[in-house]
Write a structure and sequence with these properties.
mainly beta, globular, eleven-stranded antiparallel beta sheet, 10% helix, 3 helices
Length: 192
């Protein structure tokens, strides 16, 4: 994948759903200390994943071909671990239609030469008419409050605020513009 090994995938299919045009089963992906497992249902209508769980190294996750190029280019973390616990994920016509669960990021460190500590974060995907994730920090040098959602036209929107708890971050955050009265900087990104 992108010039490197994609890891190993093992799966077991249930034979009876094949008669109805579905491939159902259980799959497990592993690569360099990362592991994800899920139940799946593949059909002409799309992909359903259930009980998607595991731990993934951030560098490994960044290299996977599932991210839009804009996300890969802007993705700052270079080190850390993602703990994934997604109860349900549905993809229809190539678009994410539903996701419910939690992704926790531990020990994030940036890719830049300063190797800045980004802290620990939690992304909770809530049930609703469209995918909606709420991102918060779990302590560390940055206080983060943001929402990640997919609009009807397929555009992903990320909106929120970030505030430095650590003085070393105050200068770095000026890249997002001046802070408000509470010391928070606005974050707003879109990508397709």
């Amino acid at each position: 994948v992108r010039g490197g090994p994609a890891g190993a995938i093992e799966w077991r299919l249930r034979k009876w759903p094949l008669l109805t045009g579905h491939a159902q089963g259980i799959a497990e992906w592993t690569q360099r200390g990362s592991r994800l497992a899920a139940a799946f249902d593949l059909s002409p209508q799309g992909v359903d994943l259930g009980a998607l769980r595991g731990i993934v190294d951030v560098g490994t996750a960044r290299a996977l071909p599932v991210w839009p190029q804009a996300v890969v280019a802007a993705w700052a973390p270079g080190e850390g671990r993602l703990r994934i616990d997604i109860g349900s994920l549905e993809i229809r016509d190539g678009r994410l239609k539903r996701i419910v669960g939690v992704v926790e990021a531990d020990g994030l460190v940036s890719l830049d030469r300063e190797r800045a500590v980004l802290g620990d974060h939690r992304l909770v995907w809530r049930e609703g008419p469209a995918p909606l994730g709420e991102l918060t920090d779990r302590g560390g040098p940055l206080e983060v409050r943001a929402r990640l959602r997919q609009a009807v036209d397929g555009v992903w929107q990320f909106d929120g605020t970030v505030r430095a708890r650590d003085a070393a971050w105050q200068t770095r955050l000026m890249a997002f513009g001046p802070p408000d009265a509470a010391g928070s900087h606005a974050l707003s990104f879109e990508w397709r």
